[in-house]
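Thread: quick sanity check before group meeting

JM: Hey all, I'm pulling together slides for Thursday and realized we never actually wrote out the predicted structure for the chain we discussed last week. Dropping the sequence here so it's in one place. If anyone has concerns about the input, flag it before I start.
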Amino acid sequence: MTRPARSLAQRRDRRMLALTLAILTAGAAYYEYWQLYGHNWIATDDSFVTGNVITLSAQTEGAVVEIRTESTRPVEAGDVLVRLDGVRAEIALEEAKAQLGETVRRIAGVFSDVEKFRRQIQVKKAQLNRVQHDLKRYRGAYAEDAVPEQQLQNAEDQQHELEAAIRQSEAELQSAETQITGTTVRNHPAVRRASEQVRRGYLEFVRRNVLAPVRGYVAKRKVQIGEHVRPGAPLMAIVPLDLLWVEANFKETELANLRPGQPAQITVDMLGKGIEYHGIVEGLQPGTGSTFALLPPENASGNFIHIVERVPVRIGLAPDELAAHPLRPGLSTVTRIDVSRPGRSVLESLTTFDHPAYRTDIYQHELAGMDEMIRQIVESNLAALDPGQRERAKPH
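JM (edit): ok, ran it. Output follows.
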């Protein structure tokens, strides 16, 4: 072999040796990393940011006359976002008010009827008493042929008529008393039912203004000016961006050591690997994703193919990091969890619901002043009665 050929072979051997040493060094380094660090972590890119997406729906019927917000805009709890015309609700409210007034007068009339029936019975009993005295005298006189038989018969017929009239009045009195026993005009069931109709009508009128239930950002604004909406029609969504978490779907073969309370590291595709979020495993869903699918699998219905299932894991994000680098629901992430930490029982959950996005008080004062309005309607209709009717309408 010539000298140049031997030199070329030697260079080739040295390169192969260097490459082999590099591979062995990298393998050793990776093995050491895996032993000290890597095997303590599980990772998945089947994960994404999620949060509460609150659908805002109409609560009454009407035509949209004003839209006061738009998608991407922030809103505060209680802000008026959509206004409906409210004409139909106003008509229903006025009709309920009129019905309440009519009911008050009708029930006051029942109280008056009770007193009327009582007096009728007293009068008819007095008449019956007089006829019975006359009949007793007529019978004595008839025995002595002092009165004709026709006069005696007329007295007996009059007695029977009065007795029947008294029984009829007593039945009417009992029927009227049954309707008002233990009540007054103000707390009578019919008046209270009519009052509830007024409240319902007032509530429909108030809810022509669609309010934001929580603080957040508007998304998916669907409603349009002039659109006629009905209760339950979706108008837009509100997303509280200060309450987000990550849902990471891990393979069932990776869950043996995963526990709530273990730390997690998250990178978001939108921001790249330069920004890392730190979270805590808050809990595991009580079933695989396929269990809650629209069409759950039925393995017994055909040929079975083994598929590695995934379980959604909820990971809470640090609020300060979320405030420094805001996120949006739906963003893709890469999630890593340190399963070497002890954590909590797999059956525990660290999720909380003390955030303002889980409650609202904007509906608590919708009926403010309603009781006073109803009281005025009742009193004004009672005042319209004559003094005698008002007196008879008082409880006995």
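AS: nice. Residues 241 and 327 are 7 Å apart (CA to CA). The first strand starts at residue 41 and ends at 51.
JM: adding both to the slides.
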